[in-house]
Amino acid sequence: QVQLVESGGGLVQAGGSLRLSCAASGSIFGITAMGWYRQAPGKQRDLVATITRSGMTNYADSVKGRFTISRDNAKNSWYLQMNSLKPEDTAVYFCNMRTYKDYWGQGTQVTVSS
């Protein structure tokens, strides 16, 4: 049974920073990519950033230059450093792990006040 556990969300003022963490446990094999997605109220879940096992990254245009995704393959963990946060970054953030199927974390709330 694969489980993803997220941490690091919270309330921050605009311009501040937060770091999200995701740790995967269980029978894990064949990981192709890890990532972060977010879902604001009334909106669809959107990609924020992804990183492959080899370290290739991809970012949504709205977060380029502000967010950085990284990973620790040995720990089956990945992270999202979020700087210069804006109110429009407010959402529930979900970590994702892609193998032959997608696995999701439970979500962590990030709220940016203006």
Write the layout of secondary structure elements.
Layout: E1 3-7, E2 10-13, E3 18-25, E4 33-39, E5 46-52, E6 57-59, E7 67-72, E8 77-82, E9 91-98, E10 102-104, E11 108-113
Parallel strand pairs: 2-11
Antiparallel strand pairs: 1-3, 3-8, 4-5, 4-9, 5-6, 7-8, 9-10, 9-11
Give a description of the structure:
This protein has 114 residues and is mostly beta strands. 0% of the residues lie in helices and 55% in strands. It is built from no helices and 11 strands. It has strands spanning 3-7, 10-13, 18-25, 33-39, 46-52, 57-59, 67-72, 77-82, 91-98, 102-104, 108-113. Strands 2, 4, 5, 6, 9, 10 and 11 form a 7-stranded mixed beta sheet that branches. Strands 1-3-8-7 form a 4-stranded antiparallel beta sheet, with no helix packed on it. The relative contact order is 0.33. The model has no long low-confidence stretch (mean pLDDT 95).
The average pLDDT value, as a whole number, equals 95
Structural class: mainly beta
The number of helical runs is 0
Helix content: under 10%
Kindly list the characteristics that best describe this protein.
114 residues; mainly beta; 11 strands
